């Protein structure tokens, strides 16, 4: 049985935020997210290492092979506390499947949109009844405040050294929380995805698009044709607490400059800045799209669910989004949607994409940490779980590279997974710029791109104000 404390949620997947990605070549396609709200906790975050009782300590060791479910979860009834992101049915479906295979484990699930998770994470994790498993919008501050369980012992016990190193390096950092990319393991990805551009095949044909654009200039030309034809070139969300224009903006940043510099900023590397000449060119290009009327005019009043509804009803030619929608679109618009990676500035340049894990962690004082870790391993290695991740989530399930990825040829899911292989080969995966600090997304990026869209902010102002907020948060240990 699964108890869901937030039933009234959007059935579609929320936009997924990219987690932590290093510049190491990815051995597989690596995600970006959220929409709806639940209840909030009001306890204060702790800045001291929590006291862990013997019952909460890990009993899992690396001896005798990987732990069994009985060893990790016990034989008596166990109710796992889970705090997940609204709009991700695959995660809840995986929990259903886990209970079907292991009936003694049931779930009490709470759901919230991404922005609320960002605000609530320190409070919830430091509270009297923290979740065993929680969606983590950002790791650094939580690790710094000793609110997450170190997963190194599980890494040894389950043999996660067989996973591609880059797959887990994204979730590693020292106890100080930064820089990211090395150190102890603090979280796991329940799947791995990437972003790009979806397009309506029927509308694309009307503007003469016979194949995906190979350069940014070709894409610009298609947008101009769509506008001239009376179509909405790009349907995008940018309303409320979710700045969806960051999707095309970061893709433009990767066109005008190197992805390593973007990741260095997100990883809080010394001296890194978002306020660079190449990024300024990217913001100016985005502003030109805005001024040309290439986005839906109500973008600042459009949330993620409304964007998806618009696209599904043929109200936009293109949409910047992630592969987590591919399974959904295969069902709702079979054969009608295509996907391509953002074209580079010049033909022959490398493609790039935001690409990272759907990050989940375990509270430092979780009552069922061992069972949570078993669940993480099961998601990555169980054949049924892997198939569900692909079919429902449209995402790469990760795990050992020798395990098959079940996908039906000719589907949109197959297209997005193939795009992920290109990013892996090009070594151009980026974390999401909203992940740089705990509050940078809600308090800086979102209001700045909303003001840019409304004509109330300049491209220079966007980068200057975001960088100032970033530096202030780093000083405060975010």
From TrEMBL:
Residues 37-46, 53-66 have a biased composition (Low complexity). InterPro entries: Bact_solute-bd_prot1, SBP. Residues 37-73 are annotated as: Disordered. SUPFAM superfamilies: Periplasmic binding protein-like II. It comes from the Bacteria. Pfam families: SBP_bac_1. PANTHER family: ARABINOSE-BINDING PROTEIN-RELATED, DIACETYLCHITOBIOSE BINDING PROTEIN DASA. This is Carbohydrate ABC transporter substrate-binding protein, CUT1 family.
């Amino acid at each position: 049985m699964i108890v869901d404390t937030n039933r009234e949620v959007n059935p579609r997947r929320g936009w997924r935020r990219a987690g932590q990605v290093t510049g190491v070549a990815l051995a597989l396609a690596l995600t970006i997210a959220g929409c709806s709200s639940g209840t909030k906790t009001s306890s204060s975050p702790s800045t001291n290492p929590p006291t862990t009782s013997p019952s909460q300590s890990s009993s899992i060791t690396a001896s005798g092979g990987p732990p069994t479910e009985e060893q990790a979860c016990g034989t008596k009834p166990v109710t796992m506390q889970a705090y997940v992101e609204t709009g991700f049915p695959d995660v809840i479906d995986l929990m259903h499947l886990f209970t079907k295979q292991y009936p003694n484990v049931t779930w009490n699930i709470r759901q919230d949109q991404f922005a609320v998770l960002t605000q609530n994470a320190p409070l919830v994790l430091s509270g009297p009844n923290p979740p065993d498993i929680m969606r983590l919008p950002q790791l650094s501050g939580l690790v710094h405040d000793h609110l997450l369980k170190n997963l190194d012992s599980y890494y040894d016990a389950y043999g996660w050294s067989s996973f591609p190193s880059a797959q887990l390096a994204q979730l590693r950092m020292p106890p100080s929380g930064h820089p990211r990319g090395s150190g102890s393991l603090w979280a796991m990805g329940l799947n791995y995805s990437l972003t790009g551009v979806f397009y309506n095949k029927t509308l694309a044909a009307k503007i003469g698009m016979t194949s995906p654009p190979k350069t940014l200039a070709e894409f610009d030309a298609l947008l101009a044709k769509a506008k001239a034809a009376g179509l909405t070139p790009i349907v995008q969300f940018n309303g409320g607490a979710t700045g969806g224009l960051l999707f095309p903006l970061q893709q433009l940043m990767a066109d005008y400059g190197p992805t390593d510099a973007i990741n260095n900023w997100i990883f809080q590397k010394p001296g890194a800045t978002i306020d660079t000449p190449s990024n300024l060119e990217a913001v100016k290009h985005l502003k030109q799209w805005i001024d040309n009327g290439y986005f839906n005019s109500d973008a600042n009043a459009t949330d993620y669910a409304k964007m998806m509804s618009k696209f599904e009803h043929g109200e936009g030619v293109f949409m910047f989004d992630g592969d987590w929608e591919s399974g959904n679109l295969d069902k709702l618009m079979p054969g009608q949607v295509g996907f391509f990676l953002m074209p580079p500035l010049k033909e022959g340049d490398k493609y790039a994409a935001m690409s990272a894990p759907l990050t989940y962690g375990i509270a430092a004082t979780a009552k069922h940490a061992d069972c949570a870790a078993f669940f993480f391993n099961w998601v990555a290695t169980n054949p049924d779980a892997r198939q569900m991740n692909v079919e429902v989530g449209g995402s790469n399930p990760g795990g050992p590279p020798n395990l098959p990825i079940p996908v039906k040829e000719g589907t949109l899911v197959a297209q997005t997974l193939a795009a992920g292989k290109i990013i892996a080969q090009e070594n151009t995966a980026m974390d999401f710029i909203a992940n740089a600090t705990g509050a940078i997304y809600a308090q800086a990026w979102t209001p700045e791109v909303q003001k840019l869209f409304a004509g109330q902010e300049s491209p220079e102002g966007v980068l200057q104000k975001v960088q100032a907020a970033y530096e202030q948060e780093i000083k405060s240990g975010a």
